[in-house]
Amino acid sequence: MKALLYLFLVLGLLSCSLQKNTKEDHQIIEVIKTDESPTIDGRGMENSWNRTEWLLLDQNWVGGSYEHDDFNGRYKLLWDKEALYILLEVVDDTLYDSHEDPFKLWWNDDSLQLFIDEDNSGGLHQYDHNAFAYSIALDGNVVDFDLGKEPQLYNEHVTSSKITKDKLTTWEIKVRLYQMDFIKGTEAKSVALSKNKKIGFALAYCDNDGSTERENFIGSVFVPGEDKNVGWINADVFGTLVLRE
Fold this sequence. Notes:
Layout: H1 2-18, E1 28-32, E2 55-57, E3 59-62, E4 71-79, E5 84-92, E6 111-117, E7 132-137, E8 142-145, E9 151-153, E10 158-165, E11 168-175, E12 198-207, E13 216-219, E14 239-244
Parallel strand pairs: 1-14
Antiparallel strand pairs: 2-4, 3-13, 4-5, 5-11, 6-7, 6-12, 7-8, 8-9, 10-11, 12-13, 12-14
C-alpha cells in the first residue's frame, strides 16, 4: 500500500511539473475588433480609432521622477483577424538614438518596448519565445533575443510608422502574433486572432535625453515589488488583453 501511495505521489508531482505555467489575469483590457484595418502611416486617421479609449503609459519601471513635459504617453488598441494594432502618442522633449547598430545597447536609446504573450500563459521567456519582448527603435528596427541567446531582427513581426511634430510623436503599429514554437528563419505563419482570445500584453517606453543610459523606463502595467524591470524575463507581470467584437 505504501509503495502504491508513493507511486501516485511521484506521478502527481511529475504531472504538475509538465503542466504549462498558468498566469493569473490582471490589469484586464477589452479590445474591440475593427472592420477597417488601420493604414500604418503614423496618422491614426481611421474612424475605428475613435471608437476606443485612450489608455495611459504612466508606470515608472526604471529611473527617478520626471516632469510631465519631459515625458507623457497614451495609447489605443484595436484588432482584426490578422493582427493587433496600437496607436501611441508620446510627448518627449528629446528623441535620442546614439547607436546606429541595432544590436548595440538598444535599450539605452529612445525606443518603444512591446511585450506580447500570444497564449497569455505567463512564465519565463528571456531566451525563448514563450513570449516576445520586442524593442522598436526610432528607425523602425525590431529587436528581440532568439533561442541562441543572441539579438535578432524581427521586423516581419512588427510594422510601425511614426510622425513627430514639435514634442509629440505619434506611432502607429501593427503586430502579428506568433506561437511559442516560432523559430527564426522558418516560414512560420502568424496566429489568426478571434473573439474572446486572451493575450498577455504590456507596453513601455525607454526615455533618454542624451545620457549614456536611459533615464527612465515607463510602462503600461503596474509591476509589484522593488525591481520592476522584469517584463523582458517574466511574462507573469504582463496585463491581459481580451478580444471583443
